[in-house]
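Internal tracking record. Fields below are filled automatically when a chain is submitted to the structure queue. Please do not edit lines marked as system-generated. If the sequence contains nonstandard residues, flag them in the REMARKS field before resubmitting.
Queue: standard
Priority: normal
Entity type: single polypeptide chain
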Amino acid sequence: MGSAAELAAAILMMAGFPAIMLAALVPSVPAFAAATAVTYLADHYLHRKGSYLINRLSKVRAGLSIRFLIRQLLLILLLARLSLSDNLIFYGTTACFIAFYGLQAPHGALVTLIRNRRRMPVATRNVDLASRIRIPDAPSKHLLDRSAEKMLHLDLAAVVGILVSAQTGSAVAAFVGIGVTLVLGTLYVLALMPYVRGRKIPPKAERVLAAVDDWLREYRPETVLYFSGSKDSAYQVNMWLETMEQLDSKPLIILRERVILANLAPTTVPVICVPGGVHLMNMDLSTVRVALYAANVGKNIHLLRVPTMKHVFIGHGDSDKLASVNPFSKVYDEVWTAGRAGRDRYAIADVGVRDEDIVEVGRPQLAPIQTWQGVPEGRVPTVLYAPTWEGWDGNPGNTSLVLAGENIVKKLVKADPPVRVLYKPHPFTGTVSAEAGAAHRRVTALVEKAAAGRAADPSFTADASAQARAKADLNRIEARIAELAGSGGEKGDEAEATRDGVVDVAKHEEIARLRAEWNDAYWRSFGTWEHRVITGAEPRLYDCFNVSDAMVSDISSVVSDFIASGKPYAVTDSAELGVEEFKRQNTAVRAAVILSNSAAELGGLLDAVRDPAADPLAEDRTELKQYLLGPDEPTSIEQFNTAVANLAVKAETRNTGQESRTAAAAAEDATADAGAAEAEELASAVPVQRASAAGEADGVAAG
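SYSTEM-GENERATED OUTPUT FOLLOWS
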């Protein structure tokens, strides 16, 4: 969805064209100039914002080229209505626009050719191709970025000059403007020409693929994370990056879509994006022993066909959703789940995944979540309200925000003894349902109003100097992170990013350390009693878990992850299934306080926070945590590394067996061939002797 400003700009632009036509018919040069300026500015604004409305205009045959062409035709109409059709200005204008459009074809062809020739068969990160092949610098972004828009806007000089001449009657301004437009257009085309041949383009596909294979033979990857999906699914691979960095074996990430690479989070692990199936199948992955799959997609078949490695489905989070027991999972050698719950889920679903092929490895991603030690002495307890979004289907059970959100927050901010409320909504909240968006705004207003009231309450005091120091730390850290993030320079295109995309490990580690420091400074920058609305990527959800003493949420992976903390939590039965049915359908809520839409049961959650010793669900949470996520010891990453090592041994055993059988078969064939050759030699030798003897006998007889 576009913003209100983008919508207003689109309306102004489309309304401007009828205004231009009216001004041409009147005729009025000042009115024409004013309406034309509005359309230029609105068009430029929408392109600069990258508005989706630009694409929508193209769908209704009001694309960029059409808009400029119509404006130019209306300018010719204005000249005709001004009785200038027999004037040199009219002829010059007509010839200018014809020539200008004549430049569009070579310009568009060159831009397309440059982009196609610079698109290599693979794109990489943290892979040293620069020492193996020459990848030239990309053309300046000034040449290729929004190139069609830039080229078409060169008509502005001609349009201004022609309007000045139409108003003054002198042809000088018109021909100066026409000359500027045509010269600039020609220079633009000429500036692009060197980049379509010679040393300005990357090597051909065969050389690039050979260089990748050479790097693979040198690096010798052992464990691959394979992923294919849409732009919106990039989080599914991003959640495994830190785990891949902690593997004991040599890791490699293989992606199938360029858009996923563009949305991949920073990592030190080598990454190869291979869009072509044939290219992937021909790639030298002979040293890989374990392949991990985060999603069940059709393109998995391109790697599943390789028998020398073992294939594992690791998914992108355990839940009771049908996707967690997809029958496709039976194609893998093993399926790894977090805990016993995943194993039982497959057994109940009976989709063909054998129990002996399931391995429990925990959830390595949950390592940053801290175990609850109770509310620190003298601190106000913190309750996190983290509702999920409304979803695509309009099911009222998806989110508590619409039916219960205000009730939950009202009870929390009025709780006695007091608690602090952190409200962190799902980033998609309100994108589908206007009702959910309105509920989010009301809840935000409630939290902010309560925060203002608490700030004015003299019973809540803050250490102003400590907060000032924390804010100064935030500014310092943010400046340093921006400096580090920007020091690598923006890459011109995918080929240049492939050449230069080797991460600076020291810088990567410093940024990680600074983000941890930023998180600490953020929580120190305001009072521990202060209500807060938290949106955006930072602080992260797990950071909010760690500063909270309890959580209220909905059925989602948020609940499953929060269970790792061992803290009390409540889940809203927004669909009003009833407590028993709600627990039966959703494993993750079996140790939760179940809330109705009135939130009347919220007191049970607050009691558990204030007096952990009297918490009736504490033992249930401990059991459920182990059932869902596995034991705390050994750690999840240790379990994961053990599972990788064990499966690699199985792959190596299989490969060794195949090599032995192949060698034995070859030896048998060689022995058989040798025996056959010897027999053939003997067989051919005996008849010759007999023939000779016979000849001699015949000779004697003849004598």
